[in-house]
């Protein structure tokens, strides 16, 4: 059942799921001490009072804590999904029923519904946009130029969104500031690496229940997400092959101890393939043709474009659903290929996304980036802006403090030494 109401401003699967969602949101909060501190401060200071805000994020227990922080801050907010298959319906229900936050997101919604929700978000006439993949910002720029005057800025969560924003800027159409949350150290070092690393394998295991030990896992892309997935797959006993197009990342993968080769060679070796490149058709017909019978393919990059599923369907006589999030394609060459999560983010489709402890820092960056945009309204140039180092370091400091870990501090002598150049050998 779908509960729809524009008066109440929500479109979620089923409001009766709210109690289970609330319990899971509270559970996630245990691992999100930095964002909880921000929630408390925002409730006192109300830094976003009077600001209309839309967030386009994966609707998870962790996003719920970001939404609560923004509501505490006084924002008039609305949340939509950033992917048709990543919504946790119980969380969406609880945000509406228990926290009074408007949500438009249903797991498994079709592309038309997804796009309609983007339009509903823009109908909210936002001053701030929190994007994960840049769909709201791109639609604003393409279709709602007349609303750009309302915009204070946008914040972007993921590598794919940053690439899109940079392309917009290069074409001269990004005419407002955009905070690059993805590139904060307290975001990509942890979320992209440890978050994607763990949750991607979690998604594969929940979808298939296969043993990873002894399998050959091919990882396409050795950015932070690929590094994390490769590291964790090796930790589970898999033989890992990396494919890359960038020479530096290729050397890095070799020196990290992985085999590196082109996809056309790796295709015949792999038992499981994971794409994390951000680019399209990384696995395509010539690769499917030479894969082993029963090879599994999945994606952990933002969009469902990395695996050429249209071509796979054309190479196949039929496909059938064999488990949740698991489809078996029967190829005309007599072999079959298993597609996980319909080629969408496997960690969010079949599992719960990154664990709360890393999203704590990612979403602390999001919350503080919104506050920064409002504090600096009218002062920032159009285009991408890094998260200020003081904010990044403060999030790291708070995280360590919450973990009960202390660091050394520089002595006066060390500070002087670091600021001098006269003493050498
Ligand atoms: N992106 C990856 N994992 C996520 C999560 N748990 N919540 C929100 N966005 C995510």
Automatic annotation (TrEMBL):
Cellular compartments annotated: Cytoplasm
Report residues binding substrate: 60, 132, 157, 187, 191
Cited InterPro entries: Adenosylhomocyst_ase-like_sf, Adenosylhomocysteinase-like, Ado_hCys_hydrolase_NAD-bd, NAD(P)-bd_dom_sf, S-Ado-L-homoCys_hydrolase_CS
Q: Which pathway or pathways does this protein act in?
A: Amino-acid biosynthesis; L-homocysteine biosynthesis; L-homocysteine from S-adenosyl-L-homocysteine: step 1/1
Which terms in the Gene Ontology molecular function aspect does this entry carry? adenosylhomocysteinase activity
Write out the function statement from the record.
May play a key role in the regulation of the intracellular concentration of adenosylhomocysteine.
- How is its cofactor bound, per UniProt? Binds 1 NAD(+) per subunit.
List of residues binding NAD(+): 158-160, 192, 221-228, 244, 279, 300-302, 347, 354
EC number(s) for this protein?
Answer: 3.13.2.1
Catalysed conversion reaction: S-adenosyl-L-homocysteine + H2O = L-homocysteine + adenosine
GO biological process per UniProt: L-homocysteine biosynthetic process; one-carbon metabolic process; S-adenosylmethionine cycle
Q: Which UniProt keywords apply?
A: Cytoplasm, Hydrolase, NAD, One-carbon metabolism
Q: What is this protein called?
A: Adenosylhomocysteinase
What this protein needs as a cofactor is: NAD(+)
Q: What is its main location?
A: cytoplasm
Q: Which GO terms describe its cellular component?
A: cytosol
List, for all copies, the residue spans of the domain called S-adenosyl-L-homocysteine hydrolase NAD binding: 192-353
Q: Which family does it belong to?
A: Belongs to the adenosylhomocysteinase family.
Q: What class of enzyme is it?
A: hydrolase
Organism of origin is Coleofasciculus chthonoplastes PCC 7420
Q: Which SMART domains match?
A: AdoHcyase (SM00996), AdoHcyase_NAD (SM00997)
């Amino acid at each position: 059942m779908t509960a729809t109401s524009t008066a109440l401003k929500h479109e979620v699967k089923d409001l009766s799921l709210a109690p289970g969602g609330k319990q899971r949101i509270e559970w996630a909060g245990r691992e999100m001490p930095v964002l909880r501190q921000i929630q408390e401060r925002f409730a006192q200071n109300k830094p976003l009072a009077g600001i209309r805000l839309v967030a386009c994020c994966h609707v998870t227990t962790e996003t719920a804590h970001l939404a609560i922080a923004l509501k505490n801050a006084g924002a008039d907010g609305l949340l939509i999904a950033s992917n048709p298959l990543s919504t946790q319906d119980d969380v969406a229900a609880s945000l509406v029923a228990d926290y009074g936050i408007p949500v438009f997101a249903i797991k498994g919604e079709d592309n038309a519904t997804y796009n309609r929700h983007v339009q509903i978000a823009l109908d909210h006439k936002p001053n701030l946009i929190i994007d994960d993949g840049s769909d709201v910002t791109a639609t604003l720029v393409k279709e709602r130029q007349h609303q750009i005057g309302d915009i204070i800025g946008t914040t972007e969560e993921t590598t794919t969104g940053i690439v899109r924003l940079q392309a917009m800027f290069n074409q001269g159409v990004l005419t407002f500031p955009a905070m690059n949350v993805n590139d904060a150290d307290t975001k990509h070092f942890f979320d992209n690496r440890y978050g994607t690393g763990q949750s991607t394998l979690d998604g594969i295991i929940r979808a298939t229940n296969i043993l990873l030990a002894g399998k050959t896992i091919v990882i396409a892309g050795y950015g932070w997400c690929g590094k994390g997935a490769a590291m964790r797959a090796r930790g589970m006993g898999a033989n890992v092959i990396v494919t890359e197009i960038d020479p530096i990342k290729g050397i890095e993968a070799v020196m990290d101890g992985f085999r590196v080769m082109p996809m056309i060679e790796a295709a015949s070796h792999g038992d499981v393939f994971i794409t994390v490149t951000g680019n399209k058709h990384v696995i395509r017909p010539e690769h499917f043709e030479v894969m082993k019978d029963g090879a599994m393919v999945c994606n952990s990059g933002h969009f469902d474009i990395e695996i050429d599923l249209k071509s796979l369907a054309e190479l196949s006589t039929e496909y059938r659903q064999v488990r949740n999030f698991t489809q078996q394609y029967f190829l005309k060459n007599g072999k079959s290929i298993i597609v996980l999560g319909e080629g969408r983010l496997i960690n969010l489709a079949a599992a719960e996304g990154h664990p709360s402890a890393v999203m704590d820092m990612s979403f602390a960056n999001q919350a503080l980036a919104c506050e920064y945009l409002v504090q600096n309204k009218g002062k920032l140039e159009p285009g991408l802006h890094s998260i200020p180092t003081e904010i990044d370091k403060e999030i790291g400091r708070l995280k360590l403090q919450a973990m009960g870990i202390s660091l050394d501090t520089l002595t006066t002598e060390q500070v002087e030494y670091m600021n001098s150049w006269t003493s050498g050998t």
